[in-house]
């Protein structure tokens, strides 16, 4: 295999030191062996080490389980991929073009539905609320990840089996795989068996190294988009079932035809892959029936991530080599560190590779030295200067104060400078001009002759908050003639700034792509400011904090 538990130590120590994660467990299976390596703490208050017997919520990896159930029912002749959802669930009214969606479209995330509804916790209520949302793209044309689509699939399982989703999943998937310690629903009675989910103390500012972690909000979950909690040993068995094309220990959990259908029936698009760190180059990524199917130089790799409030996970099964990796953590679900660990471990075990990421490579304050990031940048918002220290740290200086800039495994950066603490920084190149942004502010290496016209949405700008733990708060602001929305954190929050495009009906489309279904509308203006914003049925009130 080329790796042992001691080889993982520097990688995991670097992760714990530099990223917002309390602990977790790495699971590696090969044709010859299983390696299970717990790391860090399961309780931020006591520092109790993670145990291999502890459960972690695996979030959207549960979608694979829901898909296996649906495909079992297809084998039994109870439905087909082309069965209309409206016929299977006549109680619910799907919006607009999504009324023509089929089971295939739900499994592919191509039904045209919104990504999810954070206003209500119950599966039936979320499905019922779809009637008040938008859907304008013909089913099958556009891959757009939708949690609520898999909630509908869970309801289909319940209709056809005349059972709860949890019972059907336990009887038809968990027990046949031998996942004896896994749960198909998580309730208050199970809380003591799970590692304690963790999240940054502040949810309205980007996390930077050194910021404290606290226990995350506790939730009961049972819907088909993220209902499973599992242990390291059970995830090793699940990986072996995937590597066995649906069979384990001589027993077929799903038929060979079903497994071939799951990995061979592909959507027009797929999930984005992490582009930083060490990983095998992905030639293509398309979503199958509940699982992402990637093509790499060595063959086919199946992947899926999972983000819950207080838990982040990632699964990878390399069908060609017979190697699988699962990483379960109690980091908040918007943290991509589980994927970074999994892909790095996978790359380190390939031909010609042996070294994992070094701790210094995991330090978000250390930069490779892109000269375009440094220099003086100015605009009507003032002037900033960025430069490198001898230790290759990037530092932003403004108003006589300096602060380090940290990368976030994505396209945004965090900064400890107090004037740039509440919003992520962004950097882009426009021709020969470097541009730094931070909320409504923009700074240019060369101030352009023409600045975009200012579109006046003053009453809408501000900080909005809800009681939903999935997406707690966001800020709306104007910059360079656009109205934008951004969130510092949140499991279901966008990972980048989102354009708010005004539509004829008075609502705003969330995103530039006209195929997107997400909508935002604003409440009445009182004393010059809108008092609330509503995103797909979830209402956020303007808050008094900046």
Short description:
With 546 residues, the protein is α+β, with helices and mostly antiparallel strands. It contains 10 helices and 31 strands.
Roughly what percent helix? 10-25%
Radius of gyration: 23 Å
Number of beta-strand segments? 31
Tell me the distance between the termini: 52 Å
Question: What's the layout of helices and strands?
Answer:
Layout: H1 5-18, E1 23-29, E2 34-40, E3 56-57, H2 62-75, H3 85-88, H4 103-108, H5 123-129, H6 147-161, H7 165-177, E4 198-200, E5 213-215, E6 229-230, H8 232-243, E7 247-248, E8 251-252, H9 256-264, E9 282-287, E10 292-296, E11 299-308, E12 311-318, E13 323-329, H10 337-348, E14 375-379, E15 382-388, E16 394-398, E17 401-407, E18 413-415, E19 425-430, E20 433-438, E21 441-444, E22 462-465, E23 473-479, E24 482-486, E25 498-502, E26 508-510, E27 519-522, E28 525-526, E29 529-530, E30 532-535, E31 538-542
Antiparallel strand pairs: 1-2, 1-13, 3-6, 4-5, 7-8, 9-10, 10-11, 11-12, 12-13, 14-15, 15-16, 16-17, 17-18, 19-20, 20-21, 22-23, 22-31, 23-24, 24-25, 25-26, 26-27, 27-30, 28-29, 30-31
Helix pairs in contact: 2-6, 2-7, 2-9, 5-6
């Amino acid at each position: 295999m080329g790796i042992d538990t001691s080889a993982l130590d520097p990688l995991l120590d670097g992760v714990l030191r530099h990223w917002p994660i309390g602990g977790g467990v790495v699971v590696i299976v090969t044709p010859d062996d299983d390696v299970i390596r717990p790391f860090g703490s399961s309780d931020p208050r006591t520092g109790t080490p993670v145990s291999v017997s502890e459960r972690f919520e695996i979030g959207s990896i549960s979608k694979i389980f829901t898909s296996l159930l649906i495909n079992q029912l297809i084998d039994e002749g109870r439905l087909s991929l082309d069965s209309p959802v409206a016929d299977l669930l006549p109680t619910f009214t799907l919006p607009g073009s999504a009324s023509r969606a089929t089971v295939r479209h739900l499994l592919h995330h191509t039904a045209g539905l919104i990504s999810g509804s954070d206003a209500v916790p119950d599966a039936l209520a979320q499905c019922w609320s779809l009637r008040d949302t938008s859907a304008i793209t013909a089913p099958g044309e556009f891959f757009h990840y939708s949690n609520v689509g898999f909630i509908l699939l869970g309801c289909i399982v319940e209709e056809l089996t005349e059972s709860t989703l949890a019972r059907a999943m336990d009887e038809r998937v968990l027990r046949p795989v031998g996942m004896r310690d896994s749960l198909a629903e998580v309730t208050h009675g199970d809380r003591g068996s799970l590692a304690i989910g963790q999240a940054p103390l502040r949810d309205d500012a980007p996390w930077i190294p050194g910021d404290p972690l606290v226990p995350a909000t506790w939730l009961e979950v049972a819907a088909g988009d993220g209902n499973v909690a599992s242990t390291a040993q059970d995830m090793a068995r699940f990986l072996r079932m995937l590597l066995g094309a649906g069979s384990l220990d001589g027993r077929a959990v799903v038929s060979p035809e079903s497994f071939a259908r799951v990995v061979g029936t592909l959507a027009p698009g797929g999930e984005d892959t992490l582009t930083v760190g060490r990983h095998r180059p992905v030639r293509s990524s398309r979503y199958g029936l509940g699982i992402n199917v990637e093509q790499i130089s060595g063959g086919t790799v199946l992947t899926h991530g999972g983000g819950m409030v207080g838990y982040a996970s990632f699964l990878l099964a390399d069908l060609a080599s017979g190697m699988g990796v699962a990483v379960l953590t109690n980091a908040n679900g918007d943290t991509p560190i589980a994927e970074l660990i999994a892909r790095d471990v996978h790359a380190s075990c390939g031909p010609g590779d042996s070294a994992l990421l070094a701790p210094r490579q995991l330090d978000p304050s250390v930069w490779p030295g892109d000269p375009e990031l440094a220099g003086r940048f100015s605009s009507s918002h003032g002037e900033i200067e960025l430069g490198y220290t001898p230790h290759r740290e990037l530092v932003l200086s403004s108003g006589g104060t300096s602060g380090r800039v940290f990368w976030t495994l994505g396209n945004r950066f965090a900064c400890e400078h107090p004037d740039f603490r509440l919003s992520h920084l962004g950097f882009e190149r426009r021709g020969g001009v470097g541009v730094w942004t931070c909320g409504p502010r923009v700074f240019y290496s060369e101030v352009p002759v023409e600045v975009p016209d200012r579109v006046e949405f003053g009453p809408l700008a501000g900080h909005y908050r809800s009681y939903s733990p999935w997406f707690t708060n966001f800020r709306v602001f104007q910059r360079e003639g656009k109205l934008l929305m951004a969130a510092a954190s949140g499991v279901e929050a966008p990972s980048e700034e989102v354009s708010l495009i005004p539509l004829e009906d008075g609502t705003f489309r969330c995103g530039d792509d006209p195929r997107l279904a997400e909508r935002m509308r604003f409440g009445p203006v009182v004393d010059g400011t809108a008092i609330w914003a509503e995103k797909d049925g979830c209402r956020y009130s303007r808050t008094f904090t900046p």
